Amino acid sequence: MKKILDLGCGYAKRHRPIKAGTGTEIVKLDIKEGYADVVHDMNEYPYPFEDNSFDEVHINHSEYYVADKEKLMAEIHRISRPGARVIIRSIHFSSLPLIGRETRYAFFTTIGSFGSFEKFEVKKVRLHYFVWESKLWKRILSAPLDAIANISPRFTERVWCYLVGGFEEIQGELEVVK
């Protein structure tokens, strides 16, 4: 049976289910009771799981509540099986809603973050211009901007995001190497 961990699931237990096929178990972890199957603070180690427990780990906009990204990734490595997929979706550092706002911890970038974690192989990194918009014209505009930006996410991050404006989200797909 395939086993997926939704790390820092938030209200997703009821509202944003991970799409999974039959024969898949999804375990949801969060600090708030009522949201998760497992109530645990992501800043406290070790997590309450055995080594090599999960085939996939999803982190959807929750890692910026974790003070130490290296410890987070080491713990994900411990609880993941060899070859497991780790999918991280996060606010991009250039996100316009973040400008002028005090933020708690650092965010992911294509240049320094995903490739800096040992014991993981980067499979894919994508930028998304609009993520949270419900307006049809913004969703239509986002598709070609995303396609162009993701031809070279590093170039986009170093140059284009300052000329066109910030990207709301960065998504990375990693593979656990053991």
Structure description:
The protein is 23% helix and 29% strand. With 178 residues, it is α/β, with parallel strands linked by helices. The chain has a single domain (2-176), classed as Rossmann fold (3-Layer(aba) Sandwich). β1, α1 (12-15) and β2 (24-30) form a beta-alpha-beta unit. It starts with a strand and ends with a strand.
Describe the secondary structure blueprint for this structure.
Blueprint: E1 2-7, H1 12-15, E2 24-30, E3 38-39, E4 54-60, H2 69-79, E5 80-91, E6 120-128, H3 136-149, H4 153-164, E7 169-176
Parallel strand pairs: 1-2, 1-4, 2-3, 4-5
Antiparallel strand pairs: 5-7, 6-7
Distance between termini?
20 Å
H/I helix tally: 4
Order of helices and strands: EHEEEHEEHHE
Q: What is the CATH architecture assignment? A: 3-Layer(aba) Sandwich
What is the CA-atom radius of gyration, in angstroms?
16 Å
Indicate the multimeric state: single chain
Number of E-state strands: 7
CATH homologous superfamily, by name? Vaccinia Virus protein VP39
**CA-based shape:** globular
Helix residue percentage:
10-25%
What's the arrangement of strands in the largest beta sheet? 3-2-1-4-5-7-6
Kindly report the CATH topology: Rossmann fold
Q: Note the beta-strand portion.
A: 25-35%
Major β-sheet profile: 7 strands, mixed
Structural class by SSE content: alpha/beta
Q: Just give the CATH class.
A: Alpha Beta
Tally of distinct domains: 1
Poorly predicted runs are none
